[in-house]
């Protein structure tokens, strides 16, 4: 799930394409912190979350839907010659994205409940598994950021088509998220 196209990975690719890895680093750290805090919250409240998961995920879907539409609009309207992009790829944006991303929440909750809370482990082992799950989660975004660097020349050459395609992908993801 970490490496499939989703909001984290598409935005990491776009950020690295436009700002390079160094310019997107805070955003990627925010994604990592988001995965880690969600993993720790799921570890702490896993019993409660499995009981109320359907109600909880519906609210996240609505908020995430609106947020993804906003991101799609921002990406479409963005001028690649604009040098003031650092406001788009901040640490807090990567962090907040995790709290509104049902894909991340489902991944973390499933992994924690399946691999951590069902086992008879020490607290240290539980925390180690939880951190590992968060690292696996953020590794997908980092990989997509490096893909953005690899394909930078091609993607910037066809910038208009790229913007339309990326915006369309985010709208499709928003619709899939809302309807799933």
List keywords for this structure.
180 residues; single chain; mainly alpha; 83% helix; globular
Provide a descriptive summary of the structure in words.
There is one protein chain. This protein has helices at residues 7-44, 46-51, 53-77, 91-99, 102-117, 123-150, 152-157, 159-179. The chain has 180 residues and is mainly α. Helix 1 (7-44) packs across helix 4 (91-99), helix 3 packs antiparallel against helix 8 (159-179) and helix 5 (102-117) packs antiparallel against helix 6. The model has no long low-confidence stretch (mean pLDDT 82).
**DSSP, total strands:** 0
Query: Which residue ranges are poorly predicted, with pLDDT under 50 across at least 5 consecutive positions?
Result: none
Q: How far is it from the N-terminal to the C-terminal residue, by CA? A: 16 Å
Order of helices and strands: HHHHHHHH
Percentage of residues in DSSP E strands: under 5%
Helix content: over 70%
Structural class category: mainly alpha
> Globular, elongated, flat, extended or rod-shaped: what is the shape?
globular
**How many individual helices?**
8
Q: Write down the Rg.
A: 17 Å
- What is the average of the pLDDT values? 82
Main pleated sheet: none
Describe the protein's topology:
Blueprint: H1 7-44, H2 46-51, H3 53-77, H4 91-99, H5 102-117, H6 123-150, H7 152-157, H8 159-179
In short:
The protein is an all-alpha fold. 83% of the residues lie in helices and 0% in strands. Helix 1 packs across helix 4 and helix 3 (53-77) runs antiparallel to helix 8.
